[in-house]
Amino acid sequence: DSGVTQTPKHLITATGQRVTLRCSPRSGDLSVYWYQQSLDQGLQFLIQYYNGEERAKGNILERFSAQQFPDLHSELNLSSLELGDSALYFCASSVDPANYGYTFGSGTRLTVV
Amino acid sequence: GIQVEQSPPDLILQEGANSTLRCNFSDSVNNLQWFHQNPWGQLINLFYIPSGTKQNGRLSATTVATERYSLLYISSSQTTDSGVYFCAVPWGAGGTSYGKLTFGQGTILTVHP
């Protein structure tokens, strides 16, 4: 157990639907990062939150949004889902990336049918 | 942005063999991590190694930041070492973009009994 908790582990949904993925960072980590892993694009950074505020954005689609709550857990919302959104979605957290790097959760496998 | 190349793309070993995986990056970095993605999709942090050498059991890693490469050594390989090995560096030039990791495409390792 890495200490970063992601739920659900698996999600199957239909095109056009909306889903919410949840991440709880390791205790004490203020930063949360979301990544997408697809077969054709590999692992790509989506978005970062630090203590409730958005810090950085990567290749995140406009249909996707995220937030970090006061208890530091984060949610990634994916809407108007398309078949191509099927992927593994990872959350990572870090207390001090300059010295300790990042710890990843076990991921949520999203399948859009 | 920074480019990360891993080699070889695929590696097949017999149990007990040793191997070396390589990660080249196109710009200076001050943060580099190696991850193992197991067959269940979990991303496991192996090393945080911006420079120098670290060892953890049968695995060790060396990063030569001035020459922009890192090596991961696996000795006496076991079937449980199978999976995909990724290196990741901070996104963007200069290695200062903490949190936004650029991943290589990975090395797929298969260890046969």
Briefly characterize the structure.
By secondary structure, chain A is mostly beta strands.
Derived from helix and strand composition plus strand pairing, the structural class of chain B reads mainly beta
Low-confidence stretches of chain B are none
Assembly state (oligomeric) = heterodimer
What is the helix content of chain A?
Answer: under 10%
Cα shape of chain B: globular
- The proportion of strand residues of chain B reads over 45%
The overall strand count of chain B is: 11
Strand content of chain A: over 45%
Which outline of chain A best applies?
Answer: globular
Task: Give descriptors for this structure.
heterodimer, A: 113 residues, mainly beta, 7-stranded mixed sheet, 4-stranded antiparallel sheet, 4% helix, globular, B: mainly beta, 6-stranded mixed sheet, 5-stranded antiparallel sheet, 11 strands
Describe this structure in words.
The complex is a heterodimer of chains A (113) and B (113). With 113 residues, chain A is mainly beta. Helix content of chain A is 4%, strand content 53%. In chain A, strands 2, 4, 5, 6, 9, 10 and 11 form a seven-stranded mixed beta sheet that branches. A four-stranded antiparallel beta sheet of chain A has the order 1-3-8-7, with no helix packed on it. Chain A binds chain B through residues 2, 31, 33, 35, 42-45, 48, 55-56, 58, 88, 90, 94, 97-104, 106-107, 109, and chain B through 30-31, 33, 35, 41-45, 48, 86, 88, 91, 97-103, 105-106.
